[in-house]
Automatic annotation (TrEMBL):
<comment type="similarity">
    <text>Belongs to the inositol monophosphatase superfamily.</text>
</comment>
<dbReference type="InterPro" id="IPR000760">
    <property type="entry name" value="Inositol_monophosphatase-like"/>
</dbReference>
<keyword id="KW-0378">Hydrolase</keyword>
<dbReference type="InterPro" id="IPR020583">
    <property type="entry name" value="Inositol_monoP_metal-BS"/>
</dbReference>
<dbReference type="InterPro" id="IPR033942">
    <property type="entry name" value="IMPase"/>
</dbReference>
<keyword id="KW-0479">Metal-binding</keyword>
<protein>
    <recommendedName>
        <fullName>Inositol-1-monophosphatase</fullName>
        <ecNumber>3.1.3.25</ecNumber>
    </recommendedName>
</protein>
<keyword id="KW-0460">Magnesium</keyword>
<dbReference type="InterPro" id="IPR020550">
    <property type="entry name" value="Inositol_monophosphatase_CS"/>
</dbReference>
<dbReference type="Pfam" id="PF00459">
    <property type="entry name" value="Inositol_P"/>
</dbReference>
């Protein structure tokens, strides 16, 4: 087994255990712990508890690795591998009982660094529907025993997804982007979970996805799923406060890049 596959197997095992904890806590009732940047940017007690479990399991298995988590921040390591973790991606869905949430775990090369998002291995586990998407660089993307492939859809026939930033000051810009994209595609979804949007592009359930301002824990695992499923993922405007992520099959990615960049 290659190092990438070993990291992927560990990510999947920990994501499943963490997902079970999230699902159980959901059944017991959600406690809002805090709002962060805005009213829509929430954190639940479960986000913190699930991240603590993930951090413990990963760093117990690999004590020299670094860690970069949405809720608990960074821990430096000296192995040259950092785990980039969103304990519950789609927290608003989770809080409202909508099943589109997931545990997202990626292993990236290097020390904790928010600008580093290209992963070696990844798992996105959606506990409410019992799906685990995994990828290891050079070894493909998988949903259980099924190897994933992005679609080869044309832009005009494409079902796309996007997301919006939490800061109301960004909404005009996001809506302007949506207005540019809607006329060239079949339809558009806003599911509220970036990692699942990307996993669904990898699985061919969506033809493309774009969003500005994503954090590394929102995108690192899902982006590897897309590229290992034969798709293209680019992050542009990286000097701006809200870089734009574009993912999809070749034709859809090219058209989105043409109209948004
Ligand atoms: C959010 C979700 C959402 C996306 C936001 C993310 P969170 O992550 O992925 O779909 O639009 O940009 O921050 O806060 O639920 O972990």
């Amino acid at each position: 087994m290659s190092q990438e596959q070993e990291l992927g197997a560990l990510a999947a095992e920990v994501a499943r255990e963490a997902g079970e904890l999230a699902r159980t806590r959901r059944q017991q009732g959600v406690t809002l712990a805090a709002t962060k940047s805005t009213l829509a940017d929430i954190v639940t007690e479960a986000d913190r508890e699930v991240e603590a479990l993930i951090r413990d399991r990963l760093l117990t298995a690999r004590p020299h690795d670094g860690f970069l988590g949405e809720e608990s921040g960074t821990a430096a390591g000296d192995s040259g591998i950092t785990w980039v973790v969103d304990p519950i991606d789609g927290t608003v869905n989770y809080a409202y009982g909508i099943p589109a949430y997931n545990v997202s775990i990626a292993a990236v090369q290097g020390e904790p660094d928010p600008s580093r998002w290209e992963a070696l291995a990844a798992a996105v586990h959606a506990p409410a529907v019992g799906e685990t998407f995994t990828a290891a660089r050079g070894h493909g993307a998988w949903l259980g025993g099924r190897r994933l492939e992005v679609t080869q859809e044309t832009p005009a026939g494409a079902l796309l997804a996007t997301g919006f930033g939490y800061d109301p000051a960004t909404h005009d810009g996001d809506l302007a982007t949506v207005r540019r994209v809607m006329p060239i595609a079949r339809d558009l979804r806003r599911m509220g979970s970036a990692a699942l949007d990307l996993a669904y592009v990898a699985a061919g359930r969506l033809d493309g996805y774009f969003e500005r301002g994503l954090a590394p824990w929102d995108l690192a695992a899902g982006a590897l799923l897309v590229s290992e499923a034969g798709g293209i993922v680019t992050r542009v405007d990286t000097d701006s406060p809200r870089p734009l992520l574009i993912a999809g099959g070749p034709a859809v990615h090219a058209r989105l890049t043409e109209i948004l960049c």
